[in-house]
Each structure stands twice: as C-alpha cells, then as structure tokens.
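User: My advisor, Dr. K., asked me to get a structural model of this assembly before our group meeting. I'm new to this, so sorry if the format is off. These are the inputs:
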Amino acid sequence: MYSINVENLTKKFGDFTAVDHINFKVKKGEIFGFLGANGAGKTTAMKMMCGLLLPTSGNAIIAGYDMHTQSKQIRKNIGYMSQKFSLYNDLSIFENMQLFGTIYGIPRKELKDRIYASLKELKIDNIANSLVDSIPLGWKQRVAFATAILHRPQIVFLDEPTSGVDPIVRREFWNLIYETASTGITIFVTTHYMDEAEYCSRISIMSNGQLKLIGTPDDLKHRMGVESIDEVFVKFVQR
Amino acid sequence: MPALTVENLTKSFQGKVIALKDINFTVDYGEIFGLVGPDGAGKSTLFNILTTLLFPDTGKMTLLDLDVEKDYLAVRHSIGYLPGTFSLYPDLTVEENLIFFATMYKSRIKDNMPMIRPIWKQLQPFKNRRAGKLSGGMKQKLALCCALIHKPRVLFLDEPTTGVDPYSRKEFWDILKTIQQQDVTVIVSTPYMDEATRCDRIALIQEGSIIKIDTPYQVIQDFKGHLYTFTSENIFDLLKTMANCPLKCHYYPFGEQLHVIFYDDDDKTISEFDQFLLEKGQVHGEIMRITPTIEDCFIELMKMK
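Assistant: The format is fine. Below is the predicted structure of the whole assembly, which you can bring to the meeting.
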C-alpha cells in the first residue's frame, strides 16, 4: 500500500520547468527524506503533493486521492508543518491546537481529549494555557508538529522542521518523528542537515527539477562509493 | 589592540526576557570569528548591538578603537552588515542595488571592484534583473556585494547560510575566506555546527550566554569525557534500550551512528557496555573511540549545564 505514488509529475512556469517528470512511491509508515539544492524544485513538488498547486502534466495519488480531481480530500488527509509559519504567538498552546483542530473538523466533544492526550505525550500538558510566544523554540516545534498530526492524517509533510534548533532538541524532534512513523503515519521530510538524512528509511535527491537519486541511505553511499550522505550530496550536486 | 572588544554586555527586552547575559569576548584583526548556536541563543541581538542598531543595557564595546555607542556614526562607516533577513530593494535591479549602497556610503563601484569581483562575476549576467526575482543563493551574493562595496574593515554576517543547501554553504565559506584574505575581519553567526571548523575562533552561544570561546581545535581538545561510536541496524530501537543503560554516560544519535560519552575511560567500562548491549539483544557494529566534532562538544557542554 503506497501513501504517495507520483507519476511523471511536471510543473512549468512559462518556459521554466520547475519539476520535470518525477516518479517515486512512498510506502505507508515510511520516513521519506526529500533533499536537493536550493532551487532544485523541492518546494514546487511539495506544494503539488499537498494539493496547493496543480501540475502541468503527470499525476500523483496522495493518501489515496487523485491530485487533479480530489485536492480537497488530499488536504483533509495530510498534515503540513513548515519551518516558517508555525503557530499564532498570541494564542495559547491549547487555543492554537483547538483552532487547527476545528478547521480540520475534529468533533468538538473529542477535540479537548485529543489535544490533552497529545500534549501529555509531549510532556507539556502542564503548560497548555501558556502563550506560544512565551515558550522556547524547541517546544514550539514540537507543538507545531503535534498540531499538524492532531487530525490523524495519513501523511505528514515536514518542510525543514529542525532548521536552527539546537542539537539536542533536533534529536528529540527526530525521536518524535520516529514514534509517529511507527504508528503508521507516513513522514515526508525535507532537511539541510545531512546527518538527519541518515535517519530516513529512504531518501531522494532532486537537481534541476529532476529526481535523479533515490534509495536507502546505505544504498546511496554504497552506490556513490562514499562514507556519508553529506559526501553523496556534494558529489551529486557537483556532477 | 583587537579589532573588537566586548565587555560585560547585557541586554533584556521589556525588562523580563534576558537576551544576552554578561557577554565578553575579543576579535583579532583579520580573524574569521564565528558565533555558533541555535535560534533564540541571542546571536541576532548581539549583532544588532554591535552594528549600532540597538543599545545594550550594560557593557562596553570597542570596535577599531571606536566606542560603539558614542561613535556609532563612525562605526557604521567602518563596518559591513549582512542581516539575517533579505534586506535589499526587491524592485531595484541587481546593479541599481549595488549603486545605491555604494552611493549611500559615498563610495563608487569601480573603486572597490577588485574586492567584490569574484562574487560580482557570478551576478553580472543578471545585473538588469530585479533583486526580488533572484534565486536565494544569488540574493545572498548580491547582499554580500552590497555589504562590501564601501570596503569595510569589519564584516558582520548574521546567519548567511541558514536554509542554504550543503553544497552552496561550502561555496559561501570559500568566498568568506577570500574576503578575509583582503584584510577584512569577519564576524559570522551560524546555527550549523559543522561550519565552526571554517572559523579561526568560535564562541559557542546558548540561551544568551557564551558557553565556550576558543579555536575549533582547542574546543575539541577540551572535550570532557571520552567519545565512542558504533552503528546500529535500528537506531531508534537502540535509543529505547539505552534508556536502561546502568553505566554513567550520555548518548545521542549521530547520523547512522550512536555516540556515547563515557566519563570513566577504561576497558572495563567498554566491556561492561558491550555486555549490556548483548544482553538486550542489540546487534551493533564495532565500538570505536573517536575524536569529537564541534557538535559533540556543544551537546556535551549543554548537558553539563
């Protein structure tokens, strides 16, 4: 069973091809790392997969729904967390989660219990009423993640979720990602930290709109004859 | 005399959020000095104070023999500043932006072309394009040209590589090296620990305090404890097992490896550890002693706090 099945996906802006016939499949519960140089087309590809942008040609089935005809269902069945926009600073943690939960149509009766269960798991239920503005960055990221999966999506898209956070929090965050994947939620993640790429079940590297390299971290290192994903990346981009 | 001296610098916001706590350091002429730490550590606040955009609560700063607070106008003419957010005029072309910044500093492009030529060469094909339409990497290079066009003696760069891919990051550090060679003192901040080794000296900064200042080599030399590494088939399963480890140690994943810091370094500790993993049925690679990276040092210093 595939959570993501992308076939010949292409996006052109005028005569510029941002995404050029990419193909890949992601299994349920996989942690799929999506790497590439700046401007390689990652964001455009991700926007299409999130149902926010229609492709020029090609198609993708995301969480069982067709990108061309069922973008609304796609949006309902995925979660999205961006490094830039996270939460409303002037609302409390609870209010933020309540807002997003309501938008996603979680029944009112169930919502409060679900929020507290999720905060308990993160061990921050005692500060549920604190304003988001007042909590440390590392916690904000965790709250943003919990919010993104509150409606129990099939897939969660994480766009550079750990950018700028300290090395310990970064590792705690990956533990959270792993726990979430083990419950069957598919993780689609971008990162510029190459050590994090090693935590993924499989990774892909995009370059000039094309997806040229895909495999397990071990497989790619072996294929390129190097010791680390960092070297794979540099070698690949240089070519 | 150092290029920059910072003494007892403190800054709080609205009297409650303490952004910087008693910061002290010096930067020598011609150094690349790195401020390394996560978001929220106080790096940008420190840059804003040093570039005369913000007053500190207490403290004294001397830059090129000038008092940063009293002689702020003279300081502004002597420094270049690349802020963390894109701050050029998106509706002006590449060339117009450069002319604008040169004029503001009463300087001319041709006077300082030698310094920026290597970077400008890459931008030249796009010189009539609006700055807002450039790619991220190109915007950054233009911003660097604009910060250098008046031949500053000290260049401040606030997180120039955040969100930039690993390959472009390496390129950017190569550029910084060539700038340093032209007698510019470079003060740069970054959240990426692996970039620390590109600096002559670094200050590790966390929650408004500097937790360590030295050369990257010496920071690594001063690592307390003994670092071991090994690979595992399933790093997250291993982490769960490690929660029950009876030996005194710190551990954390590092790519496909687990790093373990032991404070007692003898064969007995390692064989006991090996035994523990065996009992828990953890299949793993050879346990090897390794030299820490700056990231290991940062983690160790944070854990010790």
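One thing worth pointing out at the meeting: Residues 166-180 of chain B form the longest helix (15 residues).

User: Perfect, thanks a lot.
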